[in-house]
Queue: 2 jobs
Job 1
Amino acid sequence: RTDQAARLGARGLSLQRSTGLKLLSSVNIWILATAYAAAGDHDRALAVLDEADELMGSFGEKLMQPALMLCRAQVILEADGESAAEKLMLESLQLAHDRQDGWHKLHAAMALARLWRGEGKHREARELLAPVYGWFTEGLDTAPLLEARALLDELESV
């Protein structure tokens, strides 16, 4: 399925490029990079993320910048290691915070909390994630918030 998602994502982005439309390209690039990463094709994922960086630099569309940064961190984590990934996760978290973008902040905080949990930094992970999760007053039954609650519960039990 991930290979099919990557093929469909690449086709969609190609069609968008053929029209010359750049607006919201970062959304399609994020979808494609996520599909490549899920398929284990880290080189392609990084290549389309590089394209997103170029697009954001030349066109100025930065809607998905925190998500793209987090996607890059997750690809790097799988391919190269924790140090560079942690730095990108922190940058994604800060950018989402600066933009008051709760959903992207939640995803970045969860990724960083998982990384720190794996390093045995349970208290730090809990202290990072708890206030981000606590900011939400609605949608607590959505998948991302249920996942965050489960992660918090796990971190609190350690």
Note: The chain has a mean pLDDT of 89.
Job 2
Amino acid sequence: NIHKYGFSFIDNVPVSAENTEKLCDSIGYIRVTHYGGFWDFTTDLAMKDTAYSEIEIPSHTDGTYWEYTPYLQLFHLLFHDGEGGNTTLVDAFKCAEDMKREYPDHYMFLSTQKVDCHSLGDVYLAQSKRIFIHNDEGELIQVSWNNSDRSSNFGASNKDLQMFYQSIKIWNEIIHRDENVLNHRLKPGQALIFDNWRCLHARIGITTGKRRMC
């Protein structure tokens, strides 16, 4: 499913952080970052990261500010007694094909122009990379996009900046087309694993209730 669609659901997962971590370990090594290894969290406005908030988080990939972006990611909702917080997924490879077909010049620009990205939370990290990353044969292998972590590209010329903003406006419109967005409400006992190089993910705002995710 991951290779075909970019994501897969795993049902009948015991609803605990410990068992979810065992599931992760059975798939591969858990990568340790400045967030730690296995991550178990609830809403905490003292933390400098929107994941801990209740606000809507737009479609994005994680780790744009790391040189080596996380590949497989797994979410398991352990508890939520309220409303909102649905997860959305977007096949960024399909959207890239749409953009390449409809706006080839803008697609090519985002395949060559590096975007400054940074994390301004408890740890400062910065990296510059292209939104569309291809291998030596010209095949798209990764999409790197997080508007919330995008820094200012003041080093670019005025002409390139105009093209840049036109291009990301087009890209933003394509990834929000209704036919490109899958809306799913996660539930305890069902883990979601996805390819972070291919799938954009987002969270609809949490309106009520306590929510615990790992």
Note: The chain has five helices and 13 strands.
